Amino acid sequence: MIDVPLSVLDLAPVAAGASSGDALRATTALARRTEELGYHRFWVAEHHNMPGIASSAPAVLIAHLAANTATIRVGSGGVMLPNHAPLVVAEQFGTLEALHPGRIDLGIGRAPGTDQLTALALRRTMEGLSAEAFPQELQALIGYFAGDESLRITATPGRGDMPAIWLLGSSGFSAQLAGLLGLPFSFAHHFSAANTDAALALYRTHFRPSQWLAKPYVMVAVNAICAETDERAEALSWPGILSFLRLRQGRPGPLPTPDEAAAYPYSDLELEFARERRVGQAMGSPETVRRLLEQLLERTGADELMLTTQVYDLADRIRSFELIAEQVAGGLRRDG
């Protein structure tokens, strides 16, 4: 059985024929159910200018999710810091931590999570959009929580209300920075599987003990679709694959229906993309998912796994997490 904590990353997917409100209500229902099942944390991701993702305002959504749950940790996977002034993020997440003490995670990324035009619309200036400014902006953000007097501004809420801060990454830059600062690190294996081993090695090599951590702490995010059979999980996976394919082609849209995904005329190149997309992920029956997650744990030495499940129907999404909790993790409330 999987013997590390399991958590959830959700993108509030907007399914074809549904509204953003439908997507957000589905995410709320999923948060409640995964809390009942014993999952450790529930994160939502910041994306913009994407018709198929409704989690564009994570702080607002996290406030709603935290108010509709009681024990599960709730946070961002992540807030894309180049899109925001550090003071604004400190005030938003300071407010969340003040309202829900001990339950809020602030996962931070250095990519914009969107295209440059949209990033410019968010920030309203080219200054700060470069990743080169990220370490300084991260230090400022931490400084607002810590009450750094050199900043000459008091974040209220913020000062004294520091959530758990994580760095997120899909390459080596954030891995190395997380290590140097002694922060926990979450790697986006779900869309950057080829970089996982190198990034985790960098994090562990550069880790310095800090006020937050005495030793490295790694969480690996992985695509996971669990169904009664491998064949059923395979069928459920195609809407998410087609959605990601269209995103890479510059044609983002709502999450396709299973029928649309099955009828799509995939080229050989697109089928190869789909095959590569599955490498290192966990899709199949409970037995298959357990084996694949155990292999990932052995390979990465992760302290925690974060599962993300892009399927069209909410009932299938919930069922996947139920099967993993009951048959893969051996009952999260016991082992998690």
From TrEMBL:
SUPFAM superfamilies for this protein: Bacterial luciferase-like
Pfam families (alphabetical): Bac_luciferase
Span of the signal peptide: none
Luciferase-like domain: residues covered: 8-303
Superkingdom of origin organism: Bacteria
Family: To bacterial alkanal monooxygenase alpha and beta chains.
Official protein name in the record: LLM class flavin-dependent oxidoreductase
Originating organism: Planosporangium thailandense
Lineage of the organism: Bacteria, Bacillati, Actinomycetota, Actinomycetes, Micromonosporales
